[in-house]
Amino acid sequence: MFERIQQLPDPTTPAELAKALRITPASVRRAIKRGELRACQTSHRGDRRIQHSAILSWLNGDRTSPPPLASNTVAREPITPIDPWVLLDTPEVCVMVGKSRGTLWRWIRDDYFPEPDKVLPGGHKAWFRATVQNWIVHGMATPALRSARK
Fold first, then answer.
1. Where do the Helix-turn-helix domain residues begin and end (predicted)?
2. Omega of the bond leading into 11 within 30 degrees of 0 (cis)
3. What are the extents of the domains in the chain?
4. 98: alpha, beta or left, given left = phi > 0 and alpha = psi -120 to 50?
5. Which CATH class, in words, describes the domain spanning 87-149?
6. pLDDT digit string (tens) for 40-79?
7. CB of 106 within 8 A of CB of 22?
């Protein structure tokens, strides 16, 4: 998911952010209005732009606004593809484990796969890459072995 955010222009519009997060633009505007997401007004019409640092703070649950940035400051920090703290949405997790969405949610219901680490705006679920990788390496036990461990 953070890969999609890094591909957005910096600063980005609320509509572009909404499309990347797969939520409605109204959800982004509400977060800006409530002060949860910092945005700057770019024209007298009320057009807004959002810095990557503000987006990352919002997604990480940091409700304190970061200090204002100078106009020539680069706001984003590079996130490597192997960063274990990158959040993955449901389709990305399905690709990693090689199963369908239905199978993934059935495994969660049956306590075979870990619950999502975060609930993003719009109700979207996300897991840290480290959680999924840890499950792939250590947690892919058969149901009989799993019940014996409890």
1. 13-61
2. yes
3. 8-59, 87-149
4. left
5. mainly alpha
6. 777 666 778 888 788 877 777 765 544 454 444 445 555 4
7. no
